[in-house]
Amino acid sequence: MNDTITLSHGSGGLQSNKLINEVFLKYFGNDILNQMNDAAQLEIDFKKLAFTTDSFVVNPLFFNGGNIGKLAVCGTVNDLAVSGAKPLYITSAFIIEEGFSIKKLEQIVMSMANEARKSGVKIVAGDTKVVERGNVDGIFINTSGIGRIYENVNINCANAREGDIVIVNGTLGDHGMTIMCARNKLGLVGDLRSDCACLNSLVDTMLEAYGGIHVIRDATRGGIAAVLNEISEFSNVTIALEENNLPVKKEVKGVTEMLGLDPLYIANEGKLCAFVPESHAQKVLSAMQKHPLGVNATIIGKVTEEIGQMVYLNTVVGGKRLVDMPSGIQLPRIC
Amino acid sequence: MNDTITLSHGSGGLQSNKLINEVFLKYFGNDILNQMNDAAQLEIDFKKLAFTTDSFVVNPLFFNGGNIGKLAVCGTVNDLAVSGAKPLYITSAFIIEEGFSIKKLEQIVMSMANEARKSGVKIVAGDTKVVERGNVDGIFINTSGIGRIYENVNINCANAREGDIVIVNGTLGDHGMTIMCARNKLGLVGDLRSDCACLNSLVDTMLEAYGGIHVIRDATRGGIAAVLNEISEFSNVTIALEENNLPVKKEVKGVTEMLGLDPLYIANEGKLCAFVPESHAQKVLSAMQKHPLGVNATIIGKVTEEIGQMVYLNTVVGGKRLVDMPSGIQLPRIC
């Protein structure tokens, strides 16, 4: 096989088949994908299905803690998981720049296969397009996924209620600051690394502890601030955060302070927030803390009795600060 | 709203929401999409599901007969339809270049909404990424789709059998030659236009005529030659085509002859081939010819009794010519 991707790899002919066999099927191969139908044919035995899509354009493609392939699988698995669904099947569609290294492509595909296996999803359909040099930056990946929505679970960003406790599963801003440092060649600061991870097993643990959790959302682009503002809007509630309780790694704190950034607005790829009725919050928190991806889980705030859609922060010096929807340019191509 | 896409439209904050509300929801809006969940939540009442994905990178974005948006909906609807499924739900994920015209984006989104409505699918989830100027060529779109596989239908590219009649629903090479002429500014030749169309209603008509059709495939990248070679391989059969019977528009014939190309290898976006047992071929053909997308349907060949995987053409001068898998660079970015 050639060392780099050529336009003929995207032409639907012999070279396309060679790439599919020697790279994609080699790592992704399973009983369904191997049939190479126009559409995967799946047997299902449930009535509520979750369906989601995300494209990934992260730059750089490889970073401390992951790469675009790992991110692409985790992102879609997480969108399904935080909808109260068991992720089952995903598709992967590649847009690759002519001249891209096949060795790098293999590394990316291996990471995808690895995350898919760990999170229990099958990659059942795919697509490959190649565009001329200079018309795409390296490689973009789309993943779409479907999952079975659990019975008796009703997670929805409109379900937050007064008194709900807001829990996150760990430190904020790790992914975004890792990408920013990598892109600006700031060098690696301490053990700064992306939190990129599939959260479906953590969500399972949380729902086993209490199946009635009101809202779960992963906090990606726009950080926890964007997600909390969306929940505040859709549920028509006010959310108060405690600055003292926000978990931020010292490496992230250092860089954000230096650059004048706020970890609340920095992207995560392995973090979620959950809105849990106060009566069950401690039980859910304890269960999370026993899970490898929730060791640093903590309560960061609650839904107040105030009227109106708002998110604010009770600061360490005793003031209040509005946490509004992020506006303007955040760091582009974070995911 | 600004006239062009900025990086902030992809940041997950206020401007992203504005774009979603003022462009995407404006045209795509439906009861499911409007809930704006991380994953669409769908009620389903069937057990066999088809799932597919495709990314679209066509250049130019607008061409005679369609645009990238129409293509993106038709392509995924067709992949479901030719799997013997009723297309139900699709996702749409955009990767847009900073500086792209919002007016053009709206035209593309309108076309998608239009095709979705006509073909009876709902767009239920989406994603938008913006990348810096020069890192993507205008706009790329991914669509993924799910559908309900019809009961008692078993369409599979491994199902072609000796004696099967090969039917196509109309002229070959229209899409590819339209794109080539547009890209090379050859000017429009006669009524040369893309055949881009959703074929699900035609497939329904065919299956009503005879539910036991062995294979249906749409003939996109690599043309009918690529598809027939794949079917020959997966079904382990020999396929003989009759050159006299190949339907090719005179405009396409003219340009392909001038450029030394073969319509068998040119992409279509509204053409399919079906493998039907001889006993039912006439019935299926007649039904197709009564459908607006099958007026020019015709028999182009059959599966012979010969042993081995091969596709060949009985030429008008009485010879035989091998129709092998396309190799090397075809026209890139045809879809």
TrEMBL record, chains A, B:
Residue ranges of domain PurM-like N-terminal in the record: 37-149
Origin: domain of life: Bacteria
Residues covered by the PurM-like C-terminal domain: 161-306
InterPro entries hit by this protein: HypE, PurM-like_C_dom, PurM-like_N
Classification via PANTHER family: CARBAMOYL DEHYDRATASE HYPE, HYDROGENASE ISOENZYMES FORMATION PROTEIN HYPE
Family of this protein: Belongs to the HypE family.
Protein name (record): Hydrogenase expression/formation protein HypE
Organism: Clostridium frigoriphilum
